Amino acid sequence: MYILKWPKSMSVIFVIWVVANTMGSTVAAPALNITAKGISNPSASQEVKKVYHYMTNLKGKGVLYTYYKIVNRKSGKLLDVKGGSGSNGANIIQWTDKNSYNQQWRFEKTRDGYYELVNRKSGLILEVSGKSGSNGASIIQWKDINSHNQQWEYINVEGEYFKLVNRNSGKYLEVSGGSKANGGKVIQWDDNEGMHQQWKLVRIQQVGKE
Length: 210
Description:
- By secondary structure, this protein is mostly beta strands.
- Helices cover 8% and strands 37% of the residues.
- The chain has one helix spanning 42-57, and strands at 2-5, 12-16, 33-36, 65-72, 78-81, 92-95, 105-109, 115-119, 125-128, 139-142, 152-158, 161-166, 172-175, 186-189, 199-207.
- The strands form 7 sheets. A 3-stranded antiparallel β-sheet has the order 1-2-3, with no helix packed on it. It has a two-stranded antiparallel ribbon with strand order 4-15.
- The radius of gyration is 19 Å and the shape is globular.
- The chain starts with a strand and ends with a strand.
- The relative contact order is 0.18.
């Protein structure tokens, strides 16, 4: 564990857990604990903000990740990489909770406020296949290419539920046809107010670099 301390006048302590003595570059916001009491020096405050921005926005391997299961509101099933594949182009489906890594995801925030969803097992990114703008386009996993079809907007609906809107197409992540079956295909579609377009998060744990 590294503890970085600023002067007492700033009363700031950043506590960062480092795995295998490797300093990572992406830290999910909940994973970085910041205490900033009584900061009165404007320049000092700006320096704190700069460090926080650096630690929470750069891409790459992280220090501490928080993973989630992503549960469809209508079916109660989980967002899943089909067959636990580690390959580019593998389809995303829904499946009963198996407590497996291919059903677990972390959110990485981009510099401009969108999110990439990274699968725990494969390390690949949730994306709209082929950068399609069409209804019914498949959702797959692919290596990170920093493309808008791999970036999603998180929109609260009510309570714990939310929608995911693709940055490139403006369409919504949904289970095709409102299926409740294992293997139901995950696609994009126009907003239709359906519960099969709504999701909730179930937090798993925080883990170090794997």
